[in-house]
Task: inverse folding
């Protein structure tokens, strides 16, 4: 679980009681100074380096450690909000395989444009839930649509949910959709 800018691992972990994740090992790293990278996710990639590369490496190490414990990619799930949603999607798209699921609550792929050459692999039907409020002050709806298109091209089963007038937050309705699509009973 990846928190947003200005938030903490504790904040994103606050969603756990609402999720159907009994029996799951929940991991939520803490970003240095409460941010994974310093600029907008829509900035040129080099403006967010070396922080973005470091954040992606943190996730890579966690996924590797989880795999070393015998947890397969099919049993590995990603959930993030805002900056954490962007980072979750970026990692998953750069390392596409059949994951348990990806829930990106208000986020899209990272960069001033979509860099398709960064993304490889096949999601093998992984369920991906993308959501946002509209209008959102940080995440343009067009980027979420573009991100959904890339993920679909990579064989993800994408569900996109747009909530008119919802502020930059996580809603109970989103949590219910995540439970229905990603953390199924």
Result:
């Amino acid at each position: 679980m990846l928190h947003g800018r200005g938030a903490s691992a504790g904040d994103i972990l606050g969603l756990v009681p609402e999720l159907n994740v009994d029996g799951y090992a929940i991991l939520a790293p803490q970003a240095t100074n409460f941010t994974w990278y310093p600029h907008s996710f829509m900035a040129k990639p080099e403006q967010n380096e070396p922080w973005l590369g470091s954040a992606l490496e943190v996730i890579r190490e966690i996924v590797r450690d989880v795999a070393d414990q015998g947890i397969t990619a099919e049993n590995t799930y990603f959930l993030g909000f805002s900056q954490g949603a962007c980072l979750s999607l970026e990692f998953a798209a750069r390392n596409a395989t059949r994951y348990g699921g990806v829930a990106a609550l208000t986020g899209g792929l990272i960069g001033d444009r979509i860099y398709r050459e960064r993304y490889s692999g096949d999601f093998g039907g992984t369920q991906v839930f993308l959501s946002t409020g509209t209008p959102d002050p940080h995440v343009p709806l067009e980027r979420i649509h573009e991100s959904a298109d890339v993920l679909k091209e990579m064989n993800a089963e994408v569900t996109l949910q747009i909530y008119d007038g919802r502020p930059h937050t996580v809603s109970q309705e989103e949590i219910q959709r995540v439970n229905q699509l990603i953390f199924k009973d």
About this structure: The chain has a mean pLDDT of 96. The chain is about 30% helix and 15% strand.
